[in-house]
Amino acid sequence: MLSEFIRGFGVTLKHMVRKPVTIQYPEKKKDYAARYHGRHQLNRYADGIEKCIGCELCAWACPADAIYVQGADNTPDARFSPGERYAIDYQINYLRCIFCGLCIEACPTRALTMTQEDEVTSTTRESMIFTKEMLLAPVVAGVKPAPHTDAEVTARGEEYYGGFAFTTPLASAQAAEGQAGVSGPASLGTEPPPAGVGPSLPTTRETDQAATALNAEPAPFAPEARSEDIVPEEIKHDE
Amino acid sequence: MVNVTIDDRAITVPEGTLVIRAAEQLGLYVPRFCDHPYLAPLGACRQCLVEIEGQRKPLTSCTTTVTEGMVVKTQFTSDIAAGAQKGVLELLLINHPLDCPVCDKGGECPLQDQVLAYGPGGSRYREPKRRYVKPVPVSPLVYLDRERCVLCARCTRFASEISGDPFIELFERGALEQVAIFEDQPYESSFSGNVIQICPVGALTDAEFRFKARPFDMTSTPSVCNLCSSGCSLTIQQRRGQIVRVLARDNPDVNEVWTCDKGRFGHAYVQRPERVVEPMIKKEGSFVPVSWAEAVRLIAGRIQTVKANGESAAVLAGARLPDEDAYAVSRFARTILGTNNVDHRLRRGSAEEDAVLPQLMHAEPVEYETLERAKLVVVAGLDPREESPILFLRLRKAALKHRVPIVELQPRRTALARFGARSIRCAPGTEADVLLAAATRLGERGGVDASAVKAHHPSVSALLERCGADADHVYALADLLQRAGSDAVFLAGERLSTSPGALAACWNLAAGLGAKFARVSRRPGAAAAVWTGLHPKLLPGGRLVDNDRERLEVEAAWQTSVPAQPGLDGRSILDGASRGAIGLLYLVAIDPAFDAPDSSLGARALDTSDFIVAHDLLLTESSRRADVLLPAVAVPERAGTFTDWEIRPQTFSPAVGAPGLAEPDWQILSMIAAELGVAFPRSLEDIRREIRSLVRPQGTRTPVLVPDVSIPKSTEHYPFMLLTYPLLLDDGTMMLGANDLMRTADDVFVELNAKDAERIGVEPGESVRVSSQHGAIEAPLRVLRDLPNGSVFIPTNQRGTRVQSLLDSTDAMTFVRVDPADAGRRG
Ligand code: SF4
Ligand code: SF4
Ligand code: SF4
Ligand code: SF4
Ligand code: FES
After folding, report:
1. Is residue A24 in some structural domain?
2. Cα distance between residue B597 and residue B593, in whole Å
């Protein structure tokens, strides 16, 4: 009888000294596997420029039709991303998302990745649609979030080639030669010319320069040519 | 016929067929970039290489014609062909940027697709790519990205072969070869959007569509253009309920694969916040939104009062209504308002027009294709490039490809002359004289049954003297007509109806020769307006109101009586309204306050009318003055039919949802009929059935009486005869919001010939003041070499001008004086 008691309490005592399986959620949180599919994040380059170019490929890949992207033009005064195009609107509907990760695979710029964040709950439907602001990675201290001006970008020695901003391969060469700005279409800025005013194409000489001297630029979408993704401390992700 | 074997399958094709077309007939798709079924073969891209037995090297299938016994192997059976194609793709990609994610062509790009299907998996090329400044706006509507260009020359061939505006060209050679526009000339063309659509890569992109959507994210609906009478087949693409892009849809019978920029880029008005979205009633001078029930009750009540008091009602309906709505308005006027006061014109009708119009639909139809087979096309009172651009393209094709002689008869040289159309120039209003002179000459030689001509004018020389046309030209026309005989085609612009005697003379000449005749209007619903009876003297099917037998047929179909008295024409309705004699003025998709060819008549008429009901899309000068304003749906939001100038009906279905409470016009009328308890078609199908039974070609063509008009002479104070018509891109309400498109529109100008300009003492570019008895406008002068002496042309409705203010639609001709602008101010 007594031995039964001792055996019984022994089990209890053993469990009392064993390492507990439960964790004190929500005070404590568990680390998930490195490739856990948590909620998404839109990454930035180290200088604060967004990686997303608004290409809609993630939306196309999504089997649940959870993503909405609207592209728009980068301008010389407001450059959000490298190249011509950026996402003026970006939304993920977490009531639809099945966390399959196909969008991540589709993204050509590694702009979209998934975090370990799994607390995607709310009390209203509207708040389950995450906006671009909610999805964008926070900027680290001292870095200016996008948009930047092309002047700022060029001053850093970076060359986000292309785009309606006419941040051309010529720009840096001409700047080096002490010329102000780029002639021809470049000076037209974001506005196409009014009717009757034809833009002049660069002359052969300019084209030659374009074709030869400045070809060393990295391809616009090569991620390795860019700085690291900015991964804020509190959110780890799977890269 | 030639027998060939392609991929071990035999086929017999006509001589001269290209290998690539023969393969298509067998369902074998050879990859291609530069080949285009409507452009001349070029062989620029080398993508379509196939192996042909007996040839040492692979040949381009898009330039090789079949020969008897030819044995062809495509990439499906030949490693040589497949390898050659793979090699070409690898070379094409050497300098092609990795732009797909930001490129508007991505998702519908033949280069993407063909590289995926036939291309190499990777590139052996490691060197940096060629770079260009990009994108370059070649016009406000088209952006050029030279890095993406595969040098297929489709765009340059379109510009030179199809539209004839060769402003895009290929420059430089080798790796630096590039598409460019001439240095200080923007790419100015009314057809520029087509180069975007046929560019096989994202080198030419659409400025307006830029980055708006991906092809896989849009829903496409086949539609028909509602902006002119050409009847282009279009595809409307929407994303999330917004129209984002309009494309030309293949229709070999009508627009082939082209469309004009107006149809492609002019859709912004549909989804503007300015749209009228709910029924509104004017209370104390301002509009108050009400329910449909209330608005319909008010109108029904008013109709009953007007009828009880024996007041008269009148309907003006725009010629931009689809067929079903035009028919519904015609029936509504007759059976519910009980009046024949209904018109789609705002001007005076004429006896000759009344005689010709009912016969129009019984004439042998002229189709686009007819023009290519004709022996002669006479274009009178019509500027096809501005008024029916696709007709212009087809005429150009007929002239250049099929060598069809074209003669244009108008006061002002049009773009037809650019490809060798012979022009007969005459003073505005004297077109009849030229036609009568040609007919008389023809009659003298027995080329036409003289009784058909019924000319009152004995001598050709007297006629020629009056119109000022070159006698040799007129004789040449007579010769051409005699040679062409019944293979001649007459294209009469709607404007010809406003030139005294011209429509009748043209009709008679065509009838006398047994030649084909078509009336071409600028507006999309003009043909339907005539044969559904939006005309004070015509009932549906071209039946005459005052012909008892014909009227009884309509009465039997409608099971109600129709007034036997012909009604008032558009001008008389406005006159009546301005005297307060119209108790109920019903406006459907029409803006008389702005468009009436009279200084202020439209506005005066509306201001004095007791009660105005208007259906409209937008607030216009007229709908603002309505007592009840009802929201109508726009064409992309509804189903219906448009009948183009050929009398070819084409149906369309809704592409996007209608805003607010807007309803189709026929449905609004049906609601009013229901409120009044009067029988009226209740569905689109009902209307279509009625149209089918009432509108059937019948009868024969008979010559009509050419009125003996004496054309008024200019006076010393007003020495110039005014010619005016709207250009393609005018300042119409439908162009609201199409800002990029309107940047390609011409500014207003006044055109004189050099001699007259010198006489007045102004240089081209300087401002002149044009004044008539009714008003004055100012605009810069342009000189057009062969405008007849004493004539002036001003486009009717370019931004900032309203030529209507110079006109008085009771006069056959308007005479004006032209002075230097500053002199006018001093004086
Ligand atoms: S994880 Fe899957 S379901 Fe969720 S947004 Fe991405 S693709 Fe769509
Ligand atoms: S997240 Fe990636 S795939 Fe999605 S739009 Fe941005 S760049 Fe394209
Ligand atoms: S043209 Fe085609 S292949 Fe080239 S970048 Fe655009 S989508 Fe990609
Ligand atoms: S711009 Fe387009 S259509 Fe013109 S040559 Fe280049 S690839 Fe061909
Ligand atoms: S398609 Fe034959 S050479 Fe281009």
Report:
1. no
2. 10
Per-residue model confidence (pLDDT) at position A171 = 36
Task: Work out the angle between the directed axes of helices B110-118 and B79-94 (0-180°, nearest 10).
Answer: 130
Contact criterion met (CB below 8 Å) for B186 and A193: yes
Assess: ipTM above 0.90: no
The reply to whether domains B354-522 and B720-826 share a CATH topology is no
User: Residue B747's CB: how many other CB atoms inside 10 A?
Assistant: 13
The domain made up of B720-826 is a member of CATH 3.40.50.300: no
**The domain B2-94: what is its CATH number?**
3.10.20.740
Task: Answer yes or no: are the C-beta atoms of B769 and B778 closer than 8 Å.
Answer: yes
Q: What is the pLDDT of residue A80?
A: 93
Query: For position B443, what pLDDT does the model report?
Result: 82
What is the predicted pLDDT for the residue at A190? 31
**Ligand 2 lined by A115 (C-beta under 6 Å):** no
Contacts of A170 in chain B (CB under 8 A): 133
Mean pLDDT, residues A224-238 taken together: 33
Query: Which CATH code of 3.40.190.10, 3.40.50.740, 2.40.50.140, 1.10.357.10 fits the domain covering B280-344+534-694?
Result: 3.40.50.740
Radius of gyration of chain A (CA): 26
The answer, yes or no, to whether residue A228 has pLDDT greater than 80, is no
Which B residues in the span 107-166 are in contact with A, Cβ-Cβ below 8 Å? 107, 127-140, 143
**Nearest in space to B756 (alpha carbons), one of B775, B784, B794:** B784
Total beta-carbon pairs less than 8 A apart between chain A and chain B: 125
Phi first, then psi, for residue B535 (nearest 5°) are -160, 135
Q: Check residue B130 and give its pLDDT.
A: 82
- Residue ranges in chain B modelled with pLDDT below 70: 167, 181-185, 447-458, 698-700, 709-710, 823-827
Alpha-carbon distance of B588 to B342, in angstroms, equals 11
pLDDT at A16: 86
The predicted pLDDT at position A131 comes to 96
pLDDT in tens, A71-101: 999 988 899 998 889 999 999 999 999 999 9
Q: According to the model, what pLDDT value does residue B465 have?
A: 83
Residue labelled with tokens 């029924």: B279
On the question of a cis peptide bond just before residue A220, with omega within 30 degrees of 0, the verdict is no
Tell me which of B47, B93, B94, B99 to substitute to probe ligand 3's pocket, judged by most ligand atoms within 8 Å of the beta carbon.
B99
> What is B325-365 written as a DSSP string?
HHHHHHHIIIIIS----EES-SS---HHHHHHHHHHTTSPP
- Tell me which of 3.30.300.70, 3.40.228.10, 3.40.50.20, 3.40.50.1980 is the CATH number of domain B354-522: 3.40.228.10
Do the Cβ atoms of B33 and B110 come closer than 8 Å?
yes
Rounded-to-integer distance, Cα B415 and Cα B331, Å: 40
Q: How far apart are CA B155 and CA B39, in angstroms?
A: 10
pLDDT at residue A161 in the model: 57
Q: Where are the domains of chain B?
A: 2-94, 130-271, 280-344+534-694, 354-522, 720-826
Structure tokens at B417: 């002359």
Locate all alpha helices (DSSP H) within B560-710, ordered by sequence: 570-578, 592-595, 601-608, 665-676, 684-694
Q: For testing the chain B interface, which of A51, A52, A55 should be mutated: the one with the most B CBs within 10 Å?
A: A55
Whether A164 and A73 have beta carbons less than 8 Å apart is answered as yes
For residues B738 and B268, what is the distance between their CA atoms, to the nearest angstrom? 5
- CATH code assigned to B130-271: 3.30.70.20
Residue B351 is predicted with a pLDDT of 87
Tokens of B810: 């009771």
Q: Is B97 helix (H, G, I), strand (E, B) or coil?
A: coil
Query: Is the pLDDT at A213 greater than 80, yes or no?
Result: no
Question: Residue B783 to residues B710, B759, B824: CA-CA distances in angstroms?
Answer: 29, 12, 20
CA distance, residue B169 to nearest chain A CA (Å): 12
